[in-house]
Amino acid sequence: MKVRGGEGEPRDILIVMLGGLAELIQLTPSITLLTRAYPGAGIDILCEKPYKTVLRHNPHVRSLIGLDSGTGGRLRGVLERLKGNYDLLIDCTNQFQFALISRLSGIPTRVGRVPYLSSLFFNKPAAVELWSDAPLEPVSLRLCRFMGDVCPAVRPGQPRFVIDRQEVAEGRRILEDRSIAPNRVAILCGTDLSSPEWPASYFVRLAAQVLMEGNMATVFIGQPGQRERLEEIRQLSNSQVSILPECDIRTLAGILANCDALVTPCNALMHLAIACGVPTLAIFGAENPAVEFPYLHLAHAALVGEDLECSPCGHEGCKEIHCLESLSPEKVYAHLRELLANVKR
Q: Which residues share a beta bridge with 46?
């Protein structure tokens, strides 16, 4: 591999990843692979500034560089920071502007891909398309194949989100201050997209079933844009459920670390919980598990859905929610109990 000063192994590696929470979490197995391939190298991550905290405390990441929003903020100062400081750049953006920065940076080995002209910008054009309108495999696996020229392209392992003791203690305090007893099941009720959702009344029935277990408590986790839905759940339950306010990613991770399980639709926070090691049951409707849920090999991750002729449809033009309305709270609860039993074995 070309490095500063000739040939050899890279000492300084930069990964450019401008995705959101789910993409950064699914990047972590590839970071681990790079660390194993080049144990003496330092790995820096260039990401959107709001998501810098996602990889905080990750032992394989040396530093995090946050980008401001807007084209000007993205470009200003980036090129100067790259020049002369890295042996290997891995551009996961699929964006022309960052391909150009990669080329102008003079970094000896550059891995990436943009439509049609990859060879003009990268001296190791990636063999696969990382982002596409019709993905056939999960992001975590595509990332490993994307980096195949510079580290072993094997199936990724478990994603990793590192929480420190102070964050876990803060999460415990938040739950205890609201008198939410131990043996907690956290429930998220929102998706990331404007797509059909499991009915609010089903979430209430699920919470009631958990409470009937006798030794378990439930807590609904607040999310941005879900206030109306959470208020509907509160009214349907006659205010008998505990609902936490919205919080930042790291506070949420600390809360989840103090829960015995999470029930959630397919969303970015699903990836967060699994990366934290929290037993997670994902409710799937129109989503494709083969793409969105690369975790069936993990003991603490499971999904539940209805196998209908039309599923998975990917929500394209779908105005119905048969796949969700036919998925009863009783079936979800049965899968939750099975997950908890498997984790305890």
A: 16, 65
**107 and 44 share one domain:** yes
Under 8 Å between Cβ of 11 and 41: yes
SS (H, E, C) 191-212: CCCCCCCCCHHHHHHHHHHHHH
Tokens in use for 335? 């899968």
Q: Cis omega (within 30 of 0) on the bond before 108?
A: no
- Cα 56 from Cα 112, distance rounded (Å): 25
Whether pLDDT at 81 is above 70: yes
Per DSSP, the residues of 6-46 read EES--SEEEEE----HHHHHHHHHHHHHHHHH-TT-EEEEE
Residues 6+ apart with CB under 8 A from 235: none
C-alpha count within 13 angstroms, C-beta hemisphere, residue 232? 11
Q: Edge-to-edge strands of the sheet including 243-244?
A: 243-244, 217-221, 184-187, 261-265, 280-283, 301-304
Lookup result for tokens 């609904």: 220
CATH code, 232: 3.40.50.2000
* Domain hosting residue 333, numbered range: 165-344
With respect to residue 152, please indicate whether it lies within any of the assigned structural domains: no
What pLDDT band is residue 79 in, cutting at 50, 70 and 90?
A: confident
Pick the closest to residue 65 from 32, 38, 42 (CA basis): 42
Please tell me the pTM assigned to this model: 0.90
Pairing of strands 6-7, 2-3: antiparallel
Task: Show the tokens assigned to 128.
Answer: 């696969």
Judge contact between 61 and 87, C-beta under 8 A.
no
Residue closest to 247 by CA, chosen among 161, 165, 162, 174: 174
Asked whether residue 41 carries a pLDDT value surpassing 80, the answer given is yes
How many C-beta atoms lie closer than 10 Å to residue 313's C-beta? 16
Cβ within 8 Å of residue 210, ≥6 positions away: 185, 216, 217, 218, 333, 336
Task: Please check whether residue 159 lies inside any domain of the structure.
Answer: no
Element spanning 96, H or E: helix 96-105
Q: Nearest-5° angle of CA 41, CA 43, CA 49?
A: 170
